[in-house]
Amino acid sequence: GVTRLLLTRIPFFKEIIVSSFSCDSCxxxxxxxxxxxxxxxxxVCYTLAVTSRQDMNREVVxxxxxxxxxxxxxxxxxxxxxxxxxxxxxxxxxxxVTGLEQDQPLRRATDQEVxxxxxxxxxxxxxxxxxxxxxxxxxxDPSGNSFVENxxxxxxxxxxxVTHYRRTPQQAALLGLEVDAKPPDAAExxxxxxxxxxxxxxxxxxPANTNMKLVQIPHFKEVIIMATNCDSCGHRxxxx
Length: 240
What we know:
Layout: E1 2-9, E2 15-22, E3 29-35, E4 43-50, H1 53-56, E5 59-62, E6 67-70, E7 75-77, E8 85-88, H2 89-101, H3 104-110, H4 112-130, E9 135-141, E10 147-148, E11 160-165, H5 169-174, H6 186-191, E12 194-200, E13 207-216, E14 222-229, E15 236-239
Antiparallel strand pairs: 1-2, 2-3, 4-9, 4-11, 5-8, 5-10, 6-7, 6-9, 12-13, 13-14, 14-15
C-alpha cells in the first residue's frame, strides 16, 4: 500500500502531521494524526455545549492519549483505544457507531439481550447527531495536544470552556514521561556541597580525585566547576 504524510497547521492551534494509508488490493484505508510538536507543559480539557447542527461540524483533534466523553449518555472513549484523528464531533460519533456495529451480527447469534442493548445505545448516539436536545462533549488530554475548534476565534466562545491543568504522576507515566523523584530544592542542596569522584590523571594516568561544585553566578545562570589534582605528578586542571 501507500502511506501519505502531510504536515499542516490548524489555525489558532498548532502544526500536526496527517498520515493516510490506502491499499489498492483490498481497498482498505485509514487516516490518523500525530502532533508535530512536543508534549505540552500542562494537560488540557475541552468542554463544549453542543446546541446546534453547526456545532457538530466543529473541527476536532483527538490524540491517541485523549479521552472523549458525553456525560448525558454515560459514554466514554478511553485513552489509547483509538489512533489520533483529525475529524469533527459528528465524525467521532460516527466512528463510535461503526465500532459498536462491527460485531453486532455475532452478538445477535450468541447473546440477543446484549445485542439489543447495544442496538438501543447506537440509536441514542444517532439521535445526538440531530441535536434535538443539547448535550455536552468533553475531550480530556493529559498531553495537551488535543483541540476543539472555536469558530469565533480569536474572540471568546461562550459554548466552549478550555481548562489547563497539571498532569498527575500516573498520567505522566502513561505518556512515557519520567517523574522526577527528587525534591524541588535538590539543586539548592548541591550548591552547598562539593562532590568528589575517582578518576585518572590525564598526564601520568595515576589515580586522582576530581572535585565538582555547582555555583550560581549572579544575574547569569548555574555553572559546574570541576577541578582535578594529581598527587603523583602534581598536574592540576580545572574547567567550567
